[in-house]
Predict the structure.
Amino acid sequence: MDIYIEGKKIGADHPPFIIAEMSGNHNQSLDQALKIVEAAAKAGAHALKLQTYTAETMTLDIREGEFYIKDRDSLWKGHSLYELYQKAHTPWGWHEPIFDYCRKVGIIPFSTPFDETAVDFLENLDVPLYKIASFENTDLPLIRKVASTGKPMIISTGMATLSELDETVRTAREAGAKDIILLKCTSTYPAPPENTNIKTIPHMKELFQCQVGLSDHTLGIGTAVASVALGATVIEKHFTLSREDGGVDSAFSLEPKEMKSLVEESLRAWQSLGQVQYGPTKKESSSIQYRRSLYIAKDLREGDILTKENLRIIRPGYGLEPKFYNVLLGKQVKMDVKKGTPVSWDLI
């Protein structure tokens, strides 16, 4: 079933809905944030997503133990969680000018709330839909709060077990959510393609009877384009003006030319799906003439025998089909025949 967002239709019968995720790539500059909005719109993205939180709503200001990132493979090693969220958050006072500018340049604005106060704030801005992040997909009080707005919900499924995901979807539906889109997601940054498992997309669609898309943290656009063939109706990718700018998510974010390619190539992938089809399409009809068929390869007189020297399988395709070649060998022609004549049964 189609989902409508500010006049935009999302569903299997429509091109993939492409979301540019700004996250913290604005580097604490509103001017940079507005430039990202403009670049996303020019690249053809359909929506731009923010994240609505403060360091205080995310964690505690503790710089040791489990509140400190020690993982040597993490992009954020050496920061406390509080420091990371201070650096990455989008100031709440920026949301309205960013949303206004999105609508001015023709792109749909929305956000991921990380607690109930963020939902109340976004409701005051008349946000058209909500996104639940993977790390919050087991926060059932937040799920209930968002679902109670009655607005469409996009839920990333990173790390969630099947039972957790079932509980999340049931909770959302019981709390009033009618339009739910699940996003297959691998919560590593960047995510290796071999750990992305996009074959889960059609399985998830069948299990939960809803639209399914992809929140993609792999490098490049290959995984995202491939997901379209598996039924993804929504694709979310992090977006930056330049990875050299060094935003918190820049290492796995698309630049404008790459986002444009994603929009174009995902559309081509969707257009190519079509339906189960055998036989020539309308566009192929004119090509049938260039198939191989049977032709007379030498001038023949009435009564001559068809042989391998004077009967050929060649292009174009106006003669009898090649499958009759062995049937015709050894047969006599009943009239004079010129070289280059397509073979038909009335010659025999």
